[in-house]
Structure formats: C-alpha cells, structure tokens
Write a structure and sequence with these properties.
alpha/beta; Rossmann fold
Length: 295
C-alpha cells in the first residue's frame, strides 16, 4: 500500500484553502454538506466565515452541525441557532442543524465497542461531505481533527453520549455522572463512529481538510479557551482522514516552536494518538503518509 498523500500549505487564506481542496482531485457532487464546528458562544478559535467562505460558496455547500451533549450554548437547538448566528454563519451560508428534528442509527462494522452510531437524521440528505476541521487540543480527546469532527461532530446529542460512554448510554446526563469508561475505550469508540459515518456516506464521497491555526490546548467547544502558545502551522488536506490527523500530530511534534510543549502535553496526556491507531485498525485509513507541498 502506497503512503497516503497529505497536501500542505503554510498559507492560511481563503485562496489557499480553496487551492488545497482542488489539489485533492476529488469533486464532491450533489448536495454537499460541510462539517465544521461553529464554536461555543464566547469562544473565538473556530474557523471563521471569512476564511471558509470562498470554498463553501464554490461547492454550493451547506454548513452541517449537530447539538452537543455537555450543556453550554449548543445543546439546546434554539441556543445553538443563536450561537450560529452570533458567529456569522447565518445568514452567510445555508446551515443545517442535522439533529434538530431527530436522529437515525447507522451500523458500525467490526467496531471495538459500538455496533451502531447515532447521528443527526439529516445526514441522509447529503450526497457528499467535506470534513473541514480546526486542528487543536481537546480536554478529553487530546486533540481534535478530522476523526473527532466526523465522530463526535456528526453524532446527535444522544450519539455523543453513546460515544463518550463507549456504548453504555445515550443519556447526556448519565453520560457524565454515571459512566466513566477507560480513556482508550472512549478513543476507540470515536474510531468506531467514524467507521459508521464513512460507510454510510461513502468513502469516495468524502474529503478532509485540517486547518492548523489558533493552536490552543482547548477545543472550540470551550467558551473560554486557553490562548495558543505556539504559532500557526498551515493547512493540511487528504483523502485519508487517518493520515491527515497523523500528519498534523507529527507536525506539532516536529515544530521548532517552543510553545508546542503545552499542546504536546495535552495530546499525549490523553493518549490522543490512539484514536488514529484505532481508526487504522478498523481499516478507515493508513498512518503512513507523504507530504505534498502546494506552495
């Protein structure tokens, strides 16, 4: 098996984002969903409409999101819509809160802990999906990139609880108060959910971009994220989400920026790379890659 190609540019602009998507050579057809995190109210590290607008418009895309499972400004659909508007996504783009009117179960084949994933029901309305992720740290997962954006990001509120509890509950209250699975079980459950989504949408109907800017140790789900301690890296893109997240993780590790220490501690203290390892074992992609510079 040849190494996966991971395209890279240091430039983080609307034009470079469009250019790196075109470099992938995969035309997303039909009704295109673009999965981003619209960010928690009060946060500011999410991918802003000004950056992603050219690419979203070129695909005639719809921003797709689901509600959270931890409270905050995005668990209740009404408050989530207020956040989406406050952060400039509405009315700039069509936006679909996919689980606002229900959820569906999709099968997971060969999963470590899950035999199903629970996602917003409107996922079924899309012919293809671009996973457009802000790569950064994460309090529970170590880091968030393409794999987290597919798994937790596309899961409904109940689906998120199901992943976080490694398949023990869909109750978002019990998820945090009663169930506390081993860390690797949670990470493996994220990989399980990715398998379900990719199988449902179709591997050839998806593409993946990670924007490695505003490299906070905290996720965009944090309303008061820690300020980044290292400089931006650039934009990475691939047709293999496993290789993509591996490449971003490696780029942080290889950076000469001393500010990387905090992010590395966050990633490794949570064993974040295990989601990538588990996804490879499920056949989702490969950790071996080659970087293709498009500057």
């Amino acid at each position: 098996m040849e190494p996966a190609k991971v395209y890279f540019t240091k430039e983080i602009t609307p034009d470079s984002l469009f250019k790196i998507y075109k470099a992938l050579g995969r035309e997303l057809r039909g009704k295109v969903g673009i999965k981003i995190s619209t960010g928690e109210m009060g946060g500011h590290n999410y991918l802003h409409p000004e950056l992603i607008g050219k690419l979203v418009d070129s695909l005639n895309g719809t921003i797709i999101e689901c509600c959270t499972a931890y409270g905050g400004s995005r668990q209740d659909p009404k408050k989530h819509w207020e956040t989406i508007e406050a952060h400039g996504f509405k009315p700039r783009f069509p936006v679909d809160l996919m689980d606002e009117e229900g959820e569906i179960e999709i099968p997971v084949v060969g999963g470590f802990h899950l035999d199903k994933d629970i996602v917003g029901k409107n996922l079924a309305n899309y012919d293809s999906v671009l996973i457009l992720s802000h790569f950064k740290g994460h309090m529970m997962g170590g880091f968030g990139g393409a794999l987290k954006n597919i798994s937790i990001g596309i899961a409904s509120t109940g689906g998120k609880a199901y992943i976080h509890s490694a398949g023990q509950t869909t109750d978002s209250k019990l998820c945090w108060s009663k169930y506390s699975p081993k860390q690797d079980d949670f990470l493996e459950s994220m990989a399980d959910a990715v398998e379900g989504v990719l199988r449902f949408v179709g591997y050839k109907n998806m593409a993946y971009i990670n924007v490695a800017n505003r490299l906070s140790v905290d996720c965009d789900c944090d309303s008061n994220p820690h300020e980044p301690e290292m400089a931006d890296l650039g934009i990475f893109a691939s047709l293999d989400p496993v290789a993509l997240d591996q490449a971003c993780y490696d780029a942080v590790k290889a950076s000469e920026d001393p500010g990387k220490a905090a992010l590395i501690e966050r990633m490794d203290s949570r064993h974040g790379i295990h989601t990538v390892e588990a996804a490879e074992k499920l056949g989702i992609g490969h950790r071996e890659y080659e970087i293709v510079n498009i500057d």
